[in-house]
Amino acid sequence: MIEIKNLHFQYQKKQPLFDDFSLSMQTGSIVGLLGKNGAGKSTLLNLIAGLMMPQKGDLHVNGFKPFQRNPNFLADLSLVPEEFSLPAVTIDLYIRSMSPLYPSFDLEKLDKILKEFELERSNRLNQLSHGQRKKFIIAFTLASNCKVIVLDEPTNGLDIPSKSQFRKILVGSVTEEQLVIISTHQVKDIDTILDKVVIIDEGTVLFNHDVEQINTKWCFETVSSLNGVSDVLYQEHCTMGYKVVRPTTQGMETPLDMELLFNAVITHSI
Amino acid sequence: MNTFFNLKRFGLLMRQDLLLNRNKFLLFLLVLALAIYTMLVYLMIVTSPNYSPSIPYQGFVGTYKQLFVLFMIGLGVFVGSSFSDLSNKVKRSSYLQVPASNFEKFLYPFLLRGVLGTVLYFFIFWVVAQLARFSVLSIPAIHATGLKILSFEFSMLFMGYDFKNCIFIVLAFLSLGTYLYSIPLFFRKMALLKTIVSIFVVAFIYTVLMVLLTHLFYPNILGFEVHCDNYMVTKQNSNWDLLVYYFASISWIFLLLIGYFKLKEQKL
After folding, report:
1. Do both B64 and B176 map to the same domain?
2. What pLDDT is stored for residue B222 in this prediction?
3. Domain boundary among B154, B169, B192
4. pLDDT in tens, A199-225
5. A39: Cβ–Cβ under 8 A, 6 or more apart, which residues?
6. Which residues in chain B touch residue A102, judged by CB atoms under 8 angstroms apart?
7. Residue B91's closest chain A neighbor by CA?
8. Which residues sit opposite B79 in a β-bridge?
């Protein structure tokens, strides 16, 4: 679905952000794209969405070169950027004007999601709060049924109940034919819905594993003391003692602590 | 589905622009039409006491022309807003993501704002001019003076010009419109200011080039003076006429072509 080979990209008069960068993502999964500030997450998403042009290398999304912005490619890729702009019209008018441009758009699905998000078609987009507008744009994107859905910081601006609603709606609406890429700093918001975790740093892929694989390889625990705890790969002080990452022993599976995993990867502990 | 041009997709794109922006378009046109109507009525009224049958009377042709030019500036603003989304990074992202080909995205504002907009604005001006004339002549005090106001016709705009000049005016208008249309594709921010600066830069470079050529071909000329032979190429046209006609009549083709490729290469 997404094939990136030996990609090179740099902003003018700056160090290369990606040099010889390769990554592959398949359909039927929700991928978490994580990285530190400035690691290039948003740039990578923009490259995938055809908003930027790689200087070298191959980048194919659904068999298209994104920057050519082929209309069939654009009709099958939907991006929710971190910052977005919506016209000063009602939700209904926006839907009537924009949805016909997406051949797989599902109006019933949209109405269902809007209802869950407590949004009315008669609401004016310019009179909604930032969080409500974000919910609308997420609803519209999910209803577009595009094969690739790219979400950049989707939970920013959402209140606590909306975050869990978002997780529920996302999981319920994505099919096996779709690929969802979520880039976020708020890893706790999405740790339960991911199928795969990709961590990038300094223009390279540091970590690229399925959640299932992660669970079979590592376990995430909180211990009161490090005494007697063996094989600690990474540790972090916390109020209850220590959070540790250890190799999984047979039959032992713990819930994935995305923040701990991220810190362990970034410090090259695993 | 054709990736370069698809009629259905193109229609949907035009519909989308009309639906999302119709209120803005109509409000702008309404305000402009009201302003022109007010100005026309005012000018017709203030002129009426000076009316004397002994003075050759133009029937407000000059006023119509001036206000038509003013109205066309409004059309220029309307046409110039074609790619306004590109001036803002956030809006540019949404615009580039709209599922349509670059050609369709380039063509629809040209047709919608350039062609249909021009037809609509011309029609509205005609209606406003007729309404203003009717309103003024309906005032009993003015009616009593015997004031004559010609009914506005588009042929009035070309009064005093021969056919060749009329063609030139139309083509120059087209080139100016195309220029306004494609400016945002060349300059993202402060497009108007950058356009004015660029015109001065081009004029300066042109003048310097002419000075250099003058010194090359006419060594006796001194300083910053430009010497150019003026001669008749045809019975009516000098070499300078032809040069100006040439630029006015073909520059729009280049602007459209370059504009299309600039849109194609737009990045975030």
Report:
1. no
2. 82
3. B154
4. 999 889 999 999 999 999 999 999 998
5. A200, A201, A202
6. 99
7. A85
8. none
Q: What is A113-172 written as a DSSP string?
A: HHHHTT--TT-BGGGS-HHHHHHHHHHHHHHTT-SEEEEESTTTT--HHHHHHHHHHHHH
In the prediction, which pLDDT does A54 show?
Answer: 95
Domain count for chain B = 2
User: Do B148 and B167 lie in a common domain?
Assistant: no
pLDDT at B58: 64
Please list the residues that pair with A218 across neighbouring strands: A247
d(CA A221, CA A261): 11
Task: Identify which of A153, A155, A158 has the alpha carbon closest to the alpha carbon of residue A130.
Answer: A158
Angle at A4 between CA A167 and CA A169, to 5 degrees: 10
Domain, as residue range, for B184: 161-268
Identify whether residues B140 and B171 lie together within a single domain.
no
Is B96 touching A (CB cutoff 8 A)? yes
List b or e across B41-52, with b for residues whose CB sees 16 or more CB atoms inside 10 angstroms: bebbbebbeeee
> What is the interface size between A and B, counted as CB pairs within 8 Å?
71
Q: Please indicate, yes or no, whether residues B150 and B204 belong to a single structural domain of this protein.
A: no
Residues B11 and B87 in one domain: yes
The C-alpha torsion from A43 through A47 and A51 to A54, rounded to 10°, is 100
Residues of A within an 8 Å Cβ radius of B: 46, 49-53, 69-72, 74-75, 77-79, 81, 83-85, 87, 89, 93-94, 96-98, 100-102
Closest CA relative to residue A197, chosen from A186, A183, A211? A211
* Rounded Cα gap, residues A127 and A51, in angstroms: 29
The reply to whether the predicted model has a pTM over 0.80 is: yes
Structure tokens at A10: 């740099």
**Cβ separation of B268 and A71 shorter than 8 Å?**
no
B142 and B16 housed in the same domain: yes
Tell me, yes or no, whether B19 and B142 share the same domain.
yes
Q: B98–A53: do the CB atoms touch at under 8 Å?
A: no
Domain-terminating residue out of B154, B186, B219: B154
Three-class DSSP category at B108: helix
CA-based nearest residue to A87, from B127, B84, B154, B136: B84
Whether B183 contacts chain A with CB within 8 A = no
Question: Residue A219, SS3?
Answer: strand
> What are B253's two structure tokens?
């083709």
- Determine how many CB atoms are found less than 10 A away from the CB of residue B230: 8
| Tens of pLDDT, residues A41-80 | 999 999 999 999 999 999 999 999 999 999 999 999 999 9
Tokens of A22: 């390769």
Nearest to A83 among B9, B90, B99 (CB): B90
- B132 and B41 in contact (C-beta within 8 Å)? yes
Q: Which residue has the tokens 């078609």?
A: A121
Domain match, B131 and B219 both? no
Q: How far apart are CA B237 and CA B231, in angstroms?
A: 9
